């Protein structure tokens, strides 16, 4: 049998982006109450609406809310494979949270390319700006933000062919 190495997904490079493209993450992520409590306690967030069901029941929401920083982390992570796997963040223009996230909601991510330009100071890279939306299982947008990412050109990226050859 001949061994054949098949390239895996390596993320998009600056050359691959076009203004108007929309990338949808292929997976959804259900957020649990345990995720929420652990994240909230790790980050020292003392707002009881995230971890005290009795307190949350007395609010307009009637149940705990998912910590918005956790929502941002999950949606941001879901977008890495499509937007920033071959780059790094330069900045965030805005973040809005139009609808709450509750335990057991499933989140999905889509990113729309808004701008693209070559870097003036880094010839092997370019800047891509995207609007990202986190959407729940009901189709409601729960987070939206815009950010800019410095992305490598395919031929300049240090991450190409980094897998070590096994000594067989």
Describe the structure.
InterPro entries: HotDog_dom_sf (IPR029069), MC_hydratase (IPR048274), MCH/BMMD (IPR052342). It comes from Sphingomonas populi. This is MaoC family dehydratase. One of its GO terms (molecular function) is lyase activity. By secondary structure, the protein is α+β, with helices and mostly antiparallel strands. The protein has one domain (14-156): Hotdog Thioesterase (Thiol Ester Dehydrase, Chain A), CATH 3.10.129. It contains 4 helices and 6 strands; from the N terminus they run ββααααββββ. It has helices at residues 33-42, 53-57, 68-78, 80-84; strands spanning 22-24, 29-30, 87-96, 106-118, 125-136, 141-152. Strands 1, 2, 3, 4, 5 and 6 form a 6-stranded antiparallel beta sheet that branches. A hairpin with a 6-residue loop joins β4 and β5. It is globular. 28% of the residues are buried.
Please provide a brief summary of the model:
InterPro entries: HotDog_dom_sf (IPR029069), MC_hydratase (IPR048274), MCH/BMMD (IPR052342). With 168 residues, the protein is an alpha+beta fold.
């Amino acid at each position: 049998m001949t061994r054949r190495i098949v390239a895996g997904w390596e993320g998009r490079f600056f050359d691959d982006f076009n203004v108007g493209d929309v990338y949808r993450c292929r997976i959804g992520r259900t957020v649990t109450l345990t995720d929420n409590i652990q994240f909230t306690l790790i980050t020292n967030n003392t707002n009881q609406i995230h971890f005290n069901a009795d307190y949350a029941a007395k609010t307009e929401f009637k149940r705990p809310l998912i910590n918005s920083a956790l929502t941002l982390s999950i949606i941001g992570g879901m977008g890495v494979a499509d937007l920033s796997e071959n780059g790094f963040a330069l900045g965030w223009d805005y973040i809005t949270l139009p609808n709450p996230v509750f335990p057991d909601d499933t989140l999905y991510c889509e990113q729309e390319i808004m701008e693209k330009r070559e870097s003036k100071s880094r010839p092997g890279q370019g800047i891509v700006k995207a609007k990202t939306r986190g959407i729940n299982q009901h189709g409601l947008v729960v987070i939206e933000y815009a950010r800019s990412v410095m992305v490598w050109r395919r031929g300049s990226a240090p991450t190409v062919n980094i897998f070590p050859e096994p000594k067989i």
